[in-house]
């Protein structure tokens, strides 16, 4: 009898824990759905704004994410940087980042993500990034508050591989390859007065691919997962009630004369 009571209590504890965990997972999925819904609203609001003409005097408050923007200036090819490990449709490659000089007197500029180019296959020569043309050019794109980041595995080992050189351009004219690019560090290395935003170019006449990745905003998927977790929690709660009811009936039968 005592053994049966212990088993019943253990089952009730385990089922109670399962209900709490499954319900919390469902609540977490609902929070993720709210986050994605808010992100979708921010993207739609940004893209609905009128195009912004970028100048060195553009106020930071106007540089909202996803807003269409246009810049007029001169490309500074000598400061170009390759962002490594950026895949496109499953193919490894790079993003090419080049600053656009908006005002020579103040060195005011905006960093432009010009597009994607593939990584060379083993045994093939490395691809040559297309140089931006000389002279004044107009660049159209969308704003981002920063260069989208990747997780840097090398950072735990203390290696300097993939880090931005302290000064640009590097001797010999080779393009630095980095995992991530922070605007303050890049401004310090180039001596440019950068706008606190990045222009992701959407139109161009070169061979670069400009199909920029978009954050996942499928909140319906999270709502579906939440429903699944809450269903599992309900099943566990029903099992808890069944075990408790059987234990109660067993206990009543044991005390009958």
UniProtKB/TrEMBL annotation:
One Pfam family matching this protein: SURF1
Signal peptide: none
UniProt cross-references to CDD domains, sorted A to Z: SURF1 (cd06662)
Record flagged with keyword Zinc: no
Species whose genome carries this gene: Bordetella petrii (strain ATCC BAA-461 / DSM 12804 / CCUG 43448 / CIP 107267 / Se-1111R)
Family the UniProt entry places it in: Belongs to the SURF1 family.
Domain of life: Bacteria
GO cellular component: plasma membrane
Protein name stated in the entry: SURF1-like protein
Membrane-traversing stretches: 229-248
Entry membrane topology: Multi-pass membrane protein
Keywords tagged on the record: Cell membrane, Membrane, Transmembrane, Transmembrane helix
Main location (coarse class): membrane
Location of the protein in the cell: Cell membrane; Membrane
